């Protein structure tokens, strides 16, 4: 309430009364502002911040790409909280705590992105090394298989040539035996025919019953004997032709076996050594298979 001071000067009394009114109005404004501030503090909205939202996403990330996306969301969350703080509509302590937590999550996300990228680079390098080793191993296995295959083909070819050589030797023995038999047979037949002719000639000379008789029977016997000897000669010639044909067949089979060996690309010098060893093991025979 206003206060009036009586004085001889009526004008001064009026000024003091006005100052008291002004001070009273100022006090009323301050009181109203304080009340409004208190009301505003009472009416501040609660901050809806979930601290597990970003952190759970970060923990579930297993690739650097996913972690980078979480990092972007964490940084965006920090920006949202800072704008919320600037509005003054939220409790300052709550907003500050949320911003600090969000910034820490950003640092965690940056760390996880770096770690995942490093792990992925190491895995990529390791996978590349393993891939190279697998390729080298496959190539080595393939080379060994090809080498083994060539060795088996070479061994089979050597065995086949050894078998052909043994068969050739057996056929030669058989043909020699046939020649001996035919020669023996020819000699016996010729001996029998000649003895028969001598006997017939002797009988003709000793016959005195008819001096003018012609010896047509003796001539006929000679012709028959000559024909028989010619047939034996022809049989012997046919036998020689058969031997030659058999030898040509054996030589052709051996040439085919040699061609098969050359296709494998193996060293023929080693084949010759292996062939001699195989023949010695088979029966002591040896032959040259070098080209």
Explain this structure.
The protein has 291 residues and is mainly alpha-helical. It contains six helices and no strands. The N terminus and C terminus are likely disordered.
Counting helices, strands and paired strands, the structural category is: mainly alpha
Computed over alpha carbons, the radius of gyration is 64 Å
What form results from the Cα inertia axes?
A: rod-shaped
β-strand amount: under 5%
Index terms:
single chain, 291 residues, mainly alpha, 6 helices, 84% helix, 0% strand, rod-shaped
Q: What is the topological layout?
A:
Elements: H1 10-42, H2 52-60, H3 64-87, H4 92-206, H5 216-264, H6 268-282
Helix pairs in contact: 3-4, 4-5, 4-6
Summarize the structure.
With about 290 residues, this protein is an all-alpha fold.
